[in-house]
Amino acid sequence: MSVSSSTQALEYLQGLPLQTHRKLYEAPATVLAVFRCMLPHLAKTLVMAMLYMPTAFPDAHLKTWFKPGANRQKEQAVFVLAQLHILDTAKQDDGTRSHSLSPGFKRSLRHALEGSGKDGSFGVSATEEEARGERRVSVRYLDEYARAQWESILFYMVGGAAGVDVKSDIGVGTKKLLQAGALVQIWQSQPRITKEGFTFVLQETNAQVWNLLIVYLKMAGDLGMNETDVLSFLFMLGSLELGQAYSVSTLSPTQLQMLDDLSAMGIVYRSSKDARVFYPTRLATTLTSESGGLNTTGGTSNNANASNKGFIIIETNYRLYAYTDSLIQIAIISLFCKLQHRFPNLISGKLTKESVQQAVKQGITSEQIIAYLTTYAHPQMQKNKTFIPPTVMDQIRLWEYEGERVETENGYLMREFNSQAEYNDVKKYADACGVLRWSSDEKRMFFLSHVEQVSAYLKSKKGPR
Amino acid sequence: MVKAIRGTLVRCDASIKAMLIDIDSKNNNEYIIEDLDEEHILVKETKVTELKGRLHNMMRERLKEPESSDSE
């Protein structure tokens, strides 16, 4: 799983309240998934070390595990764990802090590791009787199904902007979902892709799936679904095995409702609406793992198991060649590149100032373009140190900078500190958390990208006194 | 008492900043919350897009684009 996709999911998880976390952590599958792919590596190490600790662990001891210079990393890891309510920090009578894993999380993670505890959280395989009358479905078929469904979603989004006329038949629910996530807008009854939508299509598939699922989660409440149910089902899907049939008999009503929506997106496959079994596709089983997701680049590529294969060549004269016949990829490339020729398996074009600035105007950043080109760089290009020629990268950035002369970042300005000492202290803490963006010592104010951690720190400082 | 003010940090050249402040003063100061330093200003989050649009228009009026050579 890429950095972007796991951070998205992590940010969403961090925003959930304590009760939701408690309920989530009842399922071993959820806990394992959170541990496997949501936590930063340092936080994993802490969890592992404390998993079988019988008593609470004093903060002073924890400190000795870290090098003196690594306080920043330690605070960050502890903060993530505290926000997810995995780590309970209690104050002892003598004023020192001590940490312990929250009991529910600890129990479930132990179950997951040892294979003990109640069944069901990792999915129940369909019995023979249930599977009777169901056609056996091969992995390859599932991959094709997932790709077709997912591509039709992407196509629905980029089709209009790229000037390709598409009659994409995606479900009403999925369309609503895309609108709710502000990924497309309906304009004169035609879908129009938004800035967020561009960011979305340039991501790799796994990140896209998470992105859409998070929108889905936010909508779940309005659809009368139980958010916890939805989340734990998603995490369960991540632990299922590809090509295996699973029974629907143990699912809650919410989860049954979800199955319909998920099969529309190609995340699970059901032969009919009232089939008694379902198959997770590769989109589902790679949700919480690091292994390669579904490949949506090559329309005719037979081997979906191969990790995303590069197909784009860029020369130092800004010419771009892409070995693809996938209409989606062509549509995406045409968003920022002036296409010139199309052959059966190849398109060629040129990155020009106009084409890049056009893209920037629509909300694509130069970093996104470069990231996209790097991700799909042809193996031949990947032999170079930087996959894309440095001149081209710089030029794309410069083009963007020409049209866009300001950099912006949302956040909070902190001011009116009582004393220089307080200012210095809070600023140092903010810097340690990695949220400090700008500061002025003479004006005694600074700018933060995220305020939650710092305001919690301010409160805790004020509290005890 | 420490105060936190929500907003967007805008980082730009001094020349661009001068233009932004010009736009702001001509529009009843409805964009900028605080002038931070030479290259930073704090702008109302809801107004950033609008401000950028106005900056674009102003630049188009004042700056001349060099002829782009688009040789094939």
UniProtKB/TrEMBL annotation, chain A:
GO terms for cellular component: nucleotide-excision repair factor 3 complex; transcription factor TFIIH core complex; transcription factor TFIIH holo complex
Keyword set, alphabetical order: DNA damage, DNA repair, Nucleus, Transcription, Transcription regulation
Gene Ontology molecular function: ATPase activator activity; double-stranded DNA binding; RNA polymerase II general transcription initiation factor activity
Localization annotation: Nucleus
Pfam families, per the entry: Tfb2, Tfb2_C
Gene3D superfamilies, per the entry: 3.30.70.2610
Residue ranges of every copy of the Transcription factor Tfb2 C-terminal domain listed in the record: 394-459
Matching InterPro entries: Tfb2_C, TFIIH_p52/Tfb2
Family, similarity comment: Belongs to the TFB2 family.
Function: Component of the general transcription and DNA repair factor IIH (TFIIH) core complex which is involved in general and transcription-coupled nucleotide excision repair (NER) of damaged DNA. Component of the general transcription and DNA repair factor IIH (TFIIH) core complex, which is involved in general and transcription-coupled nucleotide excision repair (NER) of damaged DNA and, when complexed to TFIIK, in RNA transcription by RNA polymerase II. In NER, TFIIH acts by opening DNA around the lesion to allow the excision of the damaged oligonucleotide and its replacement by a new DNA fragment. In transcription, TFIIH has an essential role in transcription initiation.
Protein name stated in the entry: RNA polymerase II transcription factor B subunit 2
Originating organism: Epicoccum nigrum
Automatic annotation (TrEMBL), chain B:
Keyword Lipid metabolism: no
SMART domains recorded: Tbf5 (SM01395)
Record flagged with keyword Hydrolase: no
Pfam families the UniProt entry points to: Tfb5 (PF06331)
UniProt-listed InterPro entries: TFB5-like_sf, TFIIH_TTDA/Tfb5
GO cellular component, one term: transcription factor TFIIH holo complex
Single GO biological process annotation from the record: nucleotide-excision repair, preincision complex assembly
Main location (coarse class): nucleus
Source superkingdom: Eukaryota
Gene3D superfamilies: TFB5-like
Role noted for this protein: In NER, TFIIH acts by opening DNA around the lesion to allow the excision of the damaged oligonucleotide and its replacement by a new DNA fragment. In transcription, TFIIH has an essential role in transcription initiation. When the pre-initiation complex (PIC) has been established, TFIIH is required for promoter opening and promoter escape.
Family statement drawn from the similarity comment of this UniProt entry: Belongs to the TFB5 family.
Entry protein name: General transcription and DNA repair factor IIH subunit TFB5
